Amino acid sequence: MDEIDDQRLFELLDRYVSALEAGDGEQCRGWLAANPQLRDMAQCLNALGQFSVAGPAPSNSRVSNYSAAPGTSPSSKPSSGKHSSSKISPDLDETLPPASRSVGTESHSEAPALGEFGKYELLEEVGRGGMGVVFRARQRDLNRIVALKMILCNRLAGGEDVKRFYREARAAGSLRHPHIVGIHEVGQIHGQHYFAMDFIPGTSLAGLARSQSLDAEQAARCLVSVARAVQYLHEHGIIHRDLKPSNILLDRAGSAYVTDFGLAKVFADGDDRTQTGVILGTPGYMPPEQAAGRISQISERSDVYSLGAILYELLTGRPPFREDSPLNTLLQVLESEPTLPHQLNARIPPELERICLKCLEKDPSRRYPSASAFADDLERYLLREPIEAKPAGFTDRILRWARRETGLAARLAIMAAAIVIVEAEHLLNHRPLTYHIEIKLTFAVWAVLAFVFQWLLRRERTAGLARLAWAVTDPVLLMVVLILADNIGPILVGYPVLVTASGLWLSGRLVLVSTVGCILSYALLLVIRHEPTAQPHYPLIFVTALAVIGSIVAYGVHRVRTLSRYFEQSRRP
Asked: Is 242 noted as a catalytic residue in this protein?
């Protein structure tokens, strides 16, 4: 492209700055793409703009008041448009300014520099998340300290990002509750979207849980005030959908405040994110209906589940489900039961454990009907009164145990089926008592090892080793049973069952270990038994079948792991 003359370049630069001031990121990107010289000038402006926040700038210096790319942090007065008003329009689409997008090659997580930001002075960065960064700031006209949240600079913020940002401000802007962080003002300054809210000096519930252990009564008292605030949200037609310890702030007196309404669902909104299949929230704290993408089924009881997950973490030091990837965590939320809290912390009172587990029911109808009911039961516990949460019945305990200890339950079921086959063969053919005792003893050893491995799985430090040892031990013990048994035909099905079951760990390496272990075990079995067969090619067919089954299971695990990595990367800022 031919170089443009200086006069035209400066005219274009002036139009670029005007469009930048108006928040017209689309026009700015087009000009930058078509004119490399303008891009160089824009980068120069950006450098000058970042430099200018270190000290006072001349009031007539237009260069120092604008960033070179839409979405970066300017040092200028607030826009006089309607979005600088503290009143949030009831029509969300009308309140949305044009979406800001960054251009160039800057880091997507770069935050605005400290210094002047309109009528605010950015003092320090206090936190950041997937889409926003929060500063402690001084509002000069009222001489007060506020928290200023804005979309991350140089982030490719699309229309949905901006909508979510303003949706958060709209959801919290009209709320007035002593335990909910209040919103003061929302708007944009030259393409940089922001809103000002109460600054809570202190820490988050997540930070407190990391720094010290809370006793049962402290955790219960904290959750009472949080639950009352959540009930207030529900009464005003808002479901939070992202309750977690990091979204609960604590002041220096220990009072809790609910914040971060970026995923809040307002009943009156036509929110297109309520479509089935959309997964929103934080995997370790979201209810099964949310983890399954059944967003239209989310209700007040979904927030009750998240409150229970927060209580679980305060009592045990970890969320109910925490796996090595978000997708694995989602699968646990959908299919498994959390480890009983008293198994992780023996000091937890049984009443508080029952309250916590009632919140974490898979079926929403079995949870507390409201956050208020949850808070009421916590207060009954604190007052030493009988609570409403009842102990689970025998059938429920068995079903929950099977979902919680899936690996152990599956292996015990396999052993039970094998014992039935062996016993039937023993009764029909009148085998000697020693034959009966040897096989039963082998199964007893197998069952004991299964319980030991399951116990090790509950501990993060030994979980990986326990899975590997389990994958190696099962084929060996199955081989011992087959060596002792007279009729091995029906029990041989145990090998493909073990290979298939190894896929439940969602680890390709474990599937490989299990498949190789089963093939070697079967080969060693043939050598030890040394039985002639009329069909010598049958063992080769069986080994080939094991290899094919292992390959299919491993491929399925690989697909799941690939989806998991994609899911994890898509959630990163």
From this structure: yes
